[in-house]
Design goal:
CATH topology: Thiol Ester Dehydrase, Chain A
Distance between the termini: 12 Å
Radius of gyration: 14 Å
Structural class: mainly beta
Number of helices: 0
CATH superfamily: Hotdog Thioesterase
Number of strands: 4
Order of helices and strands: EEEE
Strand order of the largest sheet: 1-4-3-2
Helix content: under 10%
Number of domains: 1
Largest sheet: 4 strands, antiparallel
Shape: elongated
């Protein structure tokens, strides 16, 4: 939504996630990094890690950016 800007909204069109290991307790953190930021679409890589810094899930999210 931040990339879409005022008067626009984001709609998720594709989500791919690979789970590498489980987290049974503690804190998990997700960090999204923009791979592509266009006028009508945006793609992000999301790394989810446990409280020791081990990656537990890798994701890719693609959104369409639409006008209100």
């Amino acid at each position: 939504m931040l990339h879409a800007g005022p008067g626009r909204y984001a709609v998720g069109v594709d989500l791919n996630a690979t789970h590498h290991r489980s987290a049974t307790s503690g804190l998990v953190t997700g960090v999204a990094t923009a791979v592509f930021k266009g006028r009508t679409a945006a793609t992000y890589e999301i790394a989810i890690t446990d409280d020791t810094g081990r990656r537990i899930t890798s994701c890719r999210l693609t959104c369409m950016l639409r006008d209100l």
